[in-house]
Amino acid sequence: MNLNLSVNGKLHAIEAPEEMPLLWAIRDVIGLTGTKFGCGVNQCGACSVLLNGQLTKSCSIPVSQAIEKEILTIEGTSKNLEFLRQAWSDGNVPQCGYCQSGQLIAATSLLDTTENPTDKDIDTVMSANICRCGTYTRIKKAIHQAVAIKNESI
Amino acid sequence: MSTIHKIDRRDFVKLLGLATGGIVLGCSIGTDEKNFIPTKDSKGFHPNLFIHLEKNGNITIIASRSEMGQGIRTSLASAIADELEADWKFISVKQAIGHEKYGNQNTDGSRSVRTQLTPMRKMGASAKMMLLAAAAKKWNVAIEDCSAKNHFILNKNTQESLFFGDLVAEASMVAVPSDESIQLKDVKDFKFIGKTLKSVDLKDFTHGTAAYGMDIRLPNMKFAAIARCPVAFGTLKKFNKRYAEEVTGVETVFELPRIIPPTGKFFGMFGGMVVIAKNTWAAFQGKTNLDIEWNPGANASFDSETFKKTLTSRVHSTGKLVPGGHGNVTAAFEVAAKLIEATYHVPFLAHSPMEVPNATAWFQGNTIEVWAPVQDPQTARSELSHFFEIPEENITINVTFLGGGFGRKSKSDFVVEAVAISKKIKAPVQVVWTREDDIQHDFYHATSAQYLKGSLNRKGEVTGWLQRVGFPSIVSSFKPFSEYASGFELNQGFTNNPYLLENFRLENVQAEANVRIGWMRSVVHIHSGFGINSFIDELAFVAKKDPIKFHLDLLGEDRITNGDSAFPFYSKRLKNVLNKTATAAGWGKKLPKNHGLGVAIHYSFYSYVATIVEVSVLNKKVKVENIWTTIDCGLALNKDNIKNQLEGAAIFGMSIALYGKISMEEGAVAQNNFYDYQMTRMQDAPNIHINIVDAMKEPPTGVGEPGVPVIAPAICNAIFNATGERVRSLPLSDLGMV
What we know:
CATH architecture of the largest domain in chain A: Orthogonal Bundle
Number of strands of chain B: 30
Order of helices and strands of chain A: EEHEEEHHHH
CATH class of the largest domain in chain B: Alpha Beta
Strand order of the largest sheet of chain A: 2-1-5-3-4
Structural class of chain A: alpha+beta
CATH topology of the largest domain in chain A: DNA polymerase, domain 1
Strand content of chain B: 15-25%
Low-confidence stretches of chain B: 1-22, 26-48
Shape of chain A: globular
Shape of chain B: globular
Number of domains of chain A: 2
Number of helices of chain A: 5
Oligomer: heterodimer
CATH topology of the largest domain in chain B: Aldehyde Oxidoreductase, domain 4
Number of strands of chain A: 5
Number of domains of chain B: 3
Distance between the termini of chain A: 45 Å
Largest interface: A-B, 55 and 68 residues
């Protein structure tokens, strides 16, 4: 079917079966490859996007559910995403980097909903994202650091 | 070993697509000079050498090794930049294609820095010498009157300075310094080496712009998924492709015959049924809809639980004697005050990098071009040349970022698949594995059984050590019917046991392979590290001695083993990392209730590692609270990167200890995805404390792998310390402990 998707503020008119997972519409039809495939079954978080601000595993929802909603992917920007990017760089967080798109989007969602997350808040949200390289301690530190950067910027 | 060559600038400007002009330097690592004549290529995408300086001062450094998270692009570039006296802000890194002119590119065995640091430093140093000579000529002074600093050449007499970029034309006229004339910097003068540099790829990693294999998009590219027989080496019996072809986006469905590698090299591919589609999802759907009947073949009845019992019974009787033992264990056991026996198990493990195996290929009759996340691009190239009968010079392997490797991407079966399919459909194609494909068709880390028997005298000292091991050999993937672990595998911790043992005997038992066996991060050290450290802990307990003191006593007096090798073993350095870790962890301190500390040490990839783990155990559930690791890896090239690698190794080791298990039933892998082959997650992650020994005058040794083997035994020893319960068979999830 023909459908319109709004990704990072830009409208894309695409043709895709309505049951195609949003992940593949983003990657293979629109061609934004920053959102990653890791498991296909809502287990690893590599495909995380924000759908109308809601943290969503794009591998596990059909593209039809994203119509008329605003999609934020790693190629996009938001205030909290920028604070997190800064903190990720300051902390030299990534190793292979593959899961970090999803980690950053999940962390953005966390900061969007929780002003000053505790370690437990971080564990709750970020445990949906697997990093096989094992950068968890740096991710946790970087999320706290992003809050600090944010507070300094106000 | 390394020779520096200067290349005609025009060829390189053309090749690199650079319009600004510049000087290019190359370094051949043990190869022939003809390799430095650049290959003509209309696509202009083949950077051939290591340093390219432009008039605006920008320097492009070529990374010859694959980047899979170990930070090699940054580390080797920093070594070049240090000797070159470059300003880091002008440095960018470009990935090399797979070509023997770069020397060995096999990114494996924790050896990139170990083998490439000196050649790369020479690259930088020779470029600096040429810039110095150019400036001296310009000023008409002696070279000795010039020095290089932060992207400038300084005139000591006049205090004048010249920017590197302004010396491009003159430096291009300077003769290349001879290898013997190259002088490397002293440790005290290092600017980047031994310090901390952040990854050069941070911006791409945080913006989704780093191109991994799966991110390659070519015009008119098709996507392919492959259904492979659930049982290793099984074949297609019959199939119905109708329902697959009905999926929207599916174009064709066909049979892909297996490619069997020649004995001794390459990997070939399984073959199966291929679904070609317009997008990845349609290919996956088509594959799901295939109705296939397989001939499972020789491995149809393989059951990993039965195999565990078989291996266990084999290690409980005499095996083949492995050379290198000494003394007489039988005699020692006869007069022992105490005899201790234990049997340990590690299951099969899958690598499961976050980026599944994938490759993009375009077979165009006389040429092949590949874009893939490969650890060993040269072997992939040779393999393609062999199977598809295309000369290597017509095969281009573009190395993308690897979304994790851990040894999986050393095996290029997925590249062979992509090329075979592209050849068949006469179009560029990207083969993508599902996560289920990845978990069910890996080159598995072998399962193992180990039996240890030790004797103590009345003073609680070890007098005899018998170890029998059995695990399917990696060699079986290259040479069928290899049914015993090979010498190179046993030399990963078993034959080179670091302890001073008066009576030591090692035996090897039969272990046939019924799945593809491969190497995974730290390889056989996973087995040896687990068995030996667990057993030492058991001996120390029976001897009523502190485990750390027991390790130290058994390591004996300071000594050097393999003194004539490039990397001798120093028992002192192993003791040092152990002592440092004990101090960091506060060994001996009073612990909270239900907490325990466990220790493990291991020497691998020429590095010395000690780890102490603190666990808490509540209602039989284990939580890893703290991990302290100390590494002595000789010269520490990029400190924060090493720290990151060791933190990651702790998490990787935890995945092995807590969850790692692949099992086979009726020949097929029982696990499917991350819900039943679990990984350590954020909620499991402990506090990790890394300490790097200052050993800048020693040659650099491995970093990526040595942090792994200590984790599982240290966790299990900590559990024993907390509860008195000994875990001898991994993983903890099998015992209901996580």
